[in-house]
Amino acid sequence: MHQSISPPPSKRPRTCEPSNAPTTASRSLSTSITADPNSFRVFSWNINGITPFLQNPITSYFHAPESPHHRNENTRPASLRGFLQRHNWPAVLFLQEVKISRTDTKTQDAVKAAVNTRIVSERGAGSDAKEAPQYEVYFTLPNDRHNARGLRNSGKVYGVCSIIRSDMSTSHSVRHRTVNWDREGRVSVLELCAPNNCKLALFNVYAVNGTDNPYRDPQTGTVIGTRHDRKLIFHELLMEECMQMESLGWKVLLGGDFNVAPDERDGFPKLRTWPPQHVANREDFLNRFLEEGKGLGAVDVWRMMHGEDRRYTYFPRSREWASSCDRVDYFVAGRSVWNGGMVRGCGILDSEVERGPSDHVPFWVDIGFGTGNKD
């Protein structure tokens, strides 16, 4: 039997703790400092649109308020560079749902500038410019005029962005690629080759959300099913892509928004069971990715490390904070990654502060290329 469901706290940020910690207790904000110097941190965040992170000059976000009494503790300036600095310069940041048109190079350049331009708080700390981390930015954006049109056919819909620290990219011979079966901007792959010849494929995933809306042939525009149908095909193709990588000697780690809450522990106040196709979509995902001995046979990192703990990543802005939420964002580790002890820790930054302008919160995993302790 699973323990009773508890909502997250209404105000305070929380970090990872043992699974027996009360879910309603006050918790301090997590940072990206890793205890193991041989591991690196990967963040993932569905930001629900890049615009709030770019609409003002990047330095304007870091002027302290005149009085602490005027500070809104439930908001935080939307700054990509600020996020990276605040969390101690993680090695990788996966963003989903960036909503950038493939032809909009101006916005793409603005994202690169937002990630790499030093901000006031860096200069104020007296940091040396030579020590300021730089990042490489890779986009996977939609190229499907029939299924990824966006408002007024702008093409500003879906899309993922993979950001990797430059020193990490150099030391691990990183290669970025997409997949040939996705034209909606949903899958980005970073292939890392460590000095010890360990090959790790990091998948940035924004999975299809199953609905009754039509899905059209990307070439002809003819309706060939629903978004539910496409979600099932997406699961199959992603699973096959991962299994092929593993057959070639790659270790696989997927992170992102899978648009599936795995079980009743992952929905508050209850797990979504309507429409019935949503249940079928969940079963398909579990069978293809998380059932040992079936499909990819991978593991849900959060659930494996935190047992019965109930924590959530999706907090719709149309509802009062924590009144309705789901865990649909997580990391999925291939068995060779998990059994090899490469996963060192994971966390969810589930607070209104860290949600920022999005409707999802960030989450992270620590990965080491050597053997490690999963406890």
Automatic annotation (TrEMBL):
Superkingdom to which the source organism belongs: Eukaryota
Region annotated Disordered, chain positions: 1-32
Keyword Nuclease applies: yes
Site (Interaction with DNA substrate): 360
Residue ranges of coiled coil: none
Note describing how the cofactor binds: Probably binds two magnesium or manganese ions per subunit.
Chain positions recorded as Mg(2+) binding sites: 46, 97, 257, 259, 359-360
GO biological process assignments: base-excision repair
Record site feature (Important for catalytic activity), residues: 329
The keyword Transmembrane belongs to this UniProt entry's keyword annotation: no
Residues of the site described as Transition state stabilizer: 259
Pro residues bias spans: 1-10
A GO cellular component entry from the record: nucleus
Molecular function via GO: DNA-(apurinic or apyrimidinic site) endonuclease activity; double-stranded DNA 3'-5' DNA exonuclease activity; metal ion binding; phosphoric diester hydrolase activity
Family matches, as InterPro entries: AP_endonuc_1 (IPR004808), Endo/exonu/phosph_ase_sf (IPR036691), Endo/exonuclease/phosphatase (IPR005135)
Active site residues of this protein: 206, 257, 360
Entry-linked PROSITE patterns: AP_NUCLEASE_F1_4
Endonuclease/exonuclease/phosphatase domain: residues covered: 44-360
Compositionally biased residues, Polar residues: 17-32
Keyword entries, A-Z: Endonuclease, Exonuclease, Hydrolase, Magnesium, Manganese, Metal-binding, Nuclease
PANTHER family in UniProt: AP ENDONUCLEASE, ENDONUCLEASE_EXONUCLEASE_PHOSPHATASE DOMAIN-CONTAINING PROTEIN
Protein name: Endonuclease/exonuclease/phosphatase
Organism: Clohesyomyces aquaticus
